[in-house]
Amino acid sequence: MLRTVLAAALTLFAALPAAAEKLAPFKDELFAYPAVLSEDEGGAYRVVDYQEMRDINARDEIPERRVQGKYVALGVRSLQKDLVLDGPAGKVPHVAVGKAAGASMITIYLHGQGGSRRQGVDDFTFGGNFNRIKNLMAENGGLYLSPDFPDFGDGGAAQIAALIDHYAGQSPGAKVFVACGSMGGGLCWKLAADTKVAARLSGLLLLGSHWDETFLASPAFKRRVPVFFGQGSRDKVFPVEQQEAFFRSILKKAPDYPARFVRFETGSHGTPIRMTDWRETLNWMLSAK
User: What is the mean predicted confidence (pLDDT) over 203-232?
Assistant: First the structure.
C-alpha cells in the first residue's frame, strides 16, 4: 500500500513543472504591470496602462536618469565583471553578472543604436529595470550578459553567436534568452535564422524593436522558440501597428505559437525597456511548450 502511494506521489511530482525553472520573486510589487486595459488572443495580447507622470516622474529621483533607491539592490555589483571574449569573430567586450559556468539560465541584452554594453548594466536608468534583471539572474543561479558589438548585421550577429557558444558551453544545461532593444532586434532575427544558435534559444524578447517576416521560416520558428514583444503605442521609430501586425501574422501561421505582445498605451520608443516585467516574461518562457 505504502509503495503504491509513494509511486503515485512520484508520478504526480514528475508531471509538475520544475520549481527550479521558475524565477524567484524580486521586487515584484514595484515592477508589476499597471492596470491591464484590454486583452485579446486569449490573453496573449495585452494593452497595459502607462502614464509618464507616474511611471517616470514619480518613480525617478531624476527623470530618466536616476530611479528611486527602493527600486534597486546594489549588492549584485559584487558579481559583475567587465570582460573580453577573444573568439572566432573577434574580441567581444561584455559585462557579465552571475555564474560564468554552471548557470541555470543565461539572459543576454543587446542594445540599440548609440548604446553600449554599459546601458544594459546601468542600475539607475530605465526605472531600475536592468538592476532587476541582474538581480533575478544572480539570485536564481543564472548569468546575465550585456555585450558590445560592431553592427546590427552579420558582423554583430557572428560575435553574439560566439558569445552564446562560449557561455552555453560553460553551462550546457542553461536555457538562453536574448532581449533586443530597438535596432538590436536585427540581431535577434539573425540569431533566430542561425541553425546552431536557434537550437540553444529558449526565448526572444523584442523591446521597442522591429519585425522581420523571414522569422516565419527560421529554425527558431520551427523550434517554437517563445517570442515576446513590448511596444509603446506612441513609438515614432517603429510604429506599433506594424509590430502588432507582425505578431498577429505569427499566430495566423501557427495559432498556438508561444508569442505574447504587451502594448504600453501612450508609451514611447524606450518604454518597453523600462516597463517590461522580466520575471513574468521569463517565467512564461520557461514554462512554454
Answer: 98
